[in-house]
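STRUCTURE REQUEST FORM
Protein name: Polyamine-transporting ATPase 13A2
Source organism: Rhinolophus ferrumequinum
Requested output: structure tokens
Priority: standard
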Amino acid sequence: MSADSSPLVGNTPASYGTLTIETSLDPLNSSVSSVRLSGYCGSPWRVIGYHVVVWVMAGIPLLLFRWKPAWGVWLRLQPCNLARAETLVIEIRDKEDSSWQLYTVQVQTEAISEGSLELPPQAQAEDGRSQAAVGAVPEGTWKDTTPLHRREEAVSGQQVLRYYLFQGQRYVWIETQQAFCQVSLLDHGRTCDDIHHSRLGLGLQDQTVRRAIYGPNVISVPVKSYPQLLLDEALNPYYGFQAFSIGLWLADHYYWYALCIFLISSISICLSLYKTRKQSQTLRDMVKLSVQVCVCRPGGEKEWVDSSELVPGDCLMLPQEGGLMPCDAALVAGECMVNESSLTGESIPVLKTALLEGPVPYCPETHRRHTLFCGTLILQARAFVGPHVLAVVTRTGFCTAKGGLMSSILHPRPINFKFYKHSMKFMAALSVLALLGTIYSIFILHRNRVPVNEIVIRALDLVTVVVPPALPAAMTVCTLYAQGRLRSQGIFCIHPLRINLGGKLRLVCFDKTGTLTEDGLDVMGVVPLKGQAFLPLVPEPRRLPMGPLLRALATCHALSRLQDTPVGDPMDLKMVESTGWVLEEGPAADSAFGTQVLAVMRPPVREPQLQGTEEPPLPVSILGRFPFSSALQRMNVVVAWLGAAQPETYVKGSPELVAGLCNPETVPTNFAQMLQNYTAAGYRVVALAGKPLPIAPSLEAAQQLTRDAVERELSLLGLLVMRNLLKPQTAPVIQALRNTCIRTVMVTGDNLQTAVTVAQSCGMVGTQERLLIVHATPPERGQPASLEFLPVESSVAVNGAKDSDQASSYIVEPDPRFSHLALSGFTFGVLMKHFPRLLPKVLVQGTVFARMAPEQKTQLVCELQKLQYCVGMCGDGANDCGALKAADVGISLSQAEASVVSPFTSSMASIECVPMVIREGRCSLDTSFSVFKYMALYSLTQFMSVLILYTINTNLGDMQFLAIDLVITTTVAVLMSRTGPALALGRARPPGALLSVPVLSSLLLQVALVAGVQLGGYFLTVAQPWFVPLNRTVPAPDNLPNYENTVVFSMSSFQYLILAAAVSRGAPFRRPLYTNVPFLVALLLLGSILVGLLLAPGPLRGPLTLTNIADTCFKLLLLGLVAFNFVGAFMLESVLDQCLPACLRWLRPKRASKKRFKQLEQELAEQPWPPPTGPGR
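Status: completed
Returned output:
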């Protein structure tokens, strides 16, 4: 949300307001661009008018208002100020779409204590207005507003709480701000000091007031009763159209057809009710969590309450045996080992430590190492300072991480996809066609002297023919088949509509560690220091002499013991394993030192050392710990050993950052060259540093230290060199993606040189392709920002904390031959701020983005989307949650079936899932086009048949409609979607626009062929010597059977099968038609039956009201016409697929692409690039 809310004020009337939400505030829900609220209250005259309209129109508006509730509000209520509103209309615009979605909610009221509802100063903008302001009034008005909103009937000393519920979230009215504010923002800006002050607990009165404001701590998934679900389904527009059609068919004497459609619709409704209720119950059981928790009360009292009664500010006492967290909470005392796989997909247990006191604003994402998230499992909890493990509740209900996951499932963001928009436009075009057909039928039927009531029924019947009501269901089947195939391969999708987006991917971002490379790391060795010189690599760290470097390797970690097994980060496990030291915790560790400690590292029995003199192998206790932070790229510990006069601190992290924290005198002059040597070879390098601390060696003293105090004036101890091998599947997948013109980008928090080496090893950067490093320098000392492009072969890492990965000052001349750019997070930040015009051009050619903080990964994905890339992101969900959520197709490598961070979750631990999702996406999208074309052609084919028969005052029979719609069309429409994806990715992409020349050309030409064949059959029949015309004075269906009807029905029945086969092409996005065995069998079986009906109808002649044609030669002639139709349909599709694009290119000059990234690529090809070094512009 923008801190500057002044654009919301201006001359905006008080009856509505606009809230702009930015991705940076909530990266897990970044789809909303803006929200507009409009207030409405009762109006007697409008209510009277509303009821009059309803009565005059026989209640039809009630059905319309159920589908469009906002329309009913606009008619029944009058606009008013939000402060008086009883009903709100919420208009939400997706950031990728310009259309608005409308919702209505009721404003609810509740009495609370006066002064209970106030925003903290941190939640207000500089001008004093709320950052969450919605519906703000001009500045001169709100400053003088009474701080309480009272009703006349409210008792003295009470404030009326006004709020509304929307998609699980609660929004409360802040009178002083004249705005509704999400309850989670009431505590926005609370500092870590404020969190720690809450450890005393809330009084009963405070908790009661907060419960009224925040609501119960439950994630409620509504499970409607069967009568409610039945009403919702029955009043659905689809079934409303079906009910209208059934009534029309009954009036037209199509009893069997109407009965079958009624039975099928009833069965469909029942199945839908069962499935919907079962899904709701499954979700409810998934989130249902009600446990007894112990909360602290002022004065040291304890109280056991149900978890549903928790409110932000409550202080929980966590049991040592752990359990499920019922809310989001900040850990303020003790440590917890937590399994977060249900949310992030990270299967490795995570150590959570106590939040440090300080004036820093608390943020769950920034302080996630100190935050316990709702739904995660606490494996164990340990108290150190004080007898209990304490956590302060920060978020409850749908505001929690688990609530966000459920909200994304219950209310998925709309997909901005041309295909869906164009399908609606095409349906509108079919409706116009139906109108034209209706006019024609009225004219023809009137000419044939058909009674008026029959004309009305026949004209309306034509509407049910042209507009296919089963189209949405047929389209849904495509994604359901794709979702099932993905599930069978271990890829789970909670938003099936996003499968089609996978077919449009043009760029895929990959995390490095755990995604492109193996999760585990192998220790290659340690490079110790002696004075200011590096010593040779020691392959076995356990052979190091006892000293600071060995102690740092053994203690600088966040491991814990769970069931007598060390658990934690794989790198920490490998590092400690290489030293041979053993981790001890609990009473055994405390007894070893005679006092309470976090853990003890006990050295092994020493072997003769290869170098140096050996010190006594004393155990080392861990007194304090600052866990690893992705933003800071380091961690540290405070340790001591028996007999030590003072403790020491050890820091482990990014070599450049750690070196920047060290005393320069302890950093060797060849540090950058040494680092370059190892990172260029693809090794991961971690620096270790340390220093003595002037405090008592006790747990209490260590807990009082701040991170800044222990991370200055350090002494560099050495380098830990680790080997992180590529996964065997990585290189083939990257090569396959690049061969299909899908850009691959690495986004990692690792060292730039290491990332470059991995990119070259896996094929992101080819051996013959040039790679330049982008180096940006911010303005300093009066000098403007500058930008350099450096060849990677001459780049040298620079010692310093600003940009760990900067290259030498050598500047190359502009050279258009290079293909790839590599840059660090620091440079990316400088480009964002000082080179906004050059940033898009860098992004178009950027391949390696290293040292990227989690929020920068999200920014990168969003910037790429601004260039109109369809962006995919694949990562492990650990520190790339925002990027996975922001991407068009986010794939989290996790064992969980649903993840809070992405719509796709893959249980396979490699990037093989990416081409699978793309292939399924292309297959699903291509199938969607085919099904849409088929359903449209089916409607138009039947439309032609009915118009031809209307002309001679007859129609298709009851059972004939039944055979066409249910036996033929439904069967092939469902089975044609079963064709699987092509085995390999190709360069071609399926079109995204339905209203394109190839698609429309196919439809028009196929319809022309269909009409020609039907008319040809009709005129051939009329020309036969044995032909007897029907009696036009007898209306249908009483004039059945007749020759015209029999021929038109027979020919059109073949056409439905021909069209299904013609539009079900295989390559390049799907497997060949013959691989879809059920579909092929259905085509052959139905085709054989139709041939039999034409040549020898037998017992089916009566039910289908067919006339027996004795002329065998004529029937063979009709089969020849069918064969012509078959060959013509396939030739049309082949010619349109292969020749039409070439013809279009020849007839019209190639137009410039509308895609922003394509335009930039063209610009870069036509101008010198990279630009010369210059100041920011």
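Reviewer notes: Residues 1-31, 119-156, 609-613, 794-817 have pLDDT under 50 and may be disordered. The first strand starts at residue 16 and ends at 20.
Form closed.
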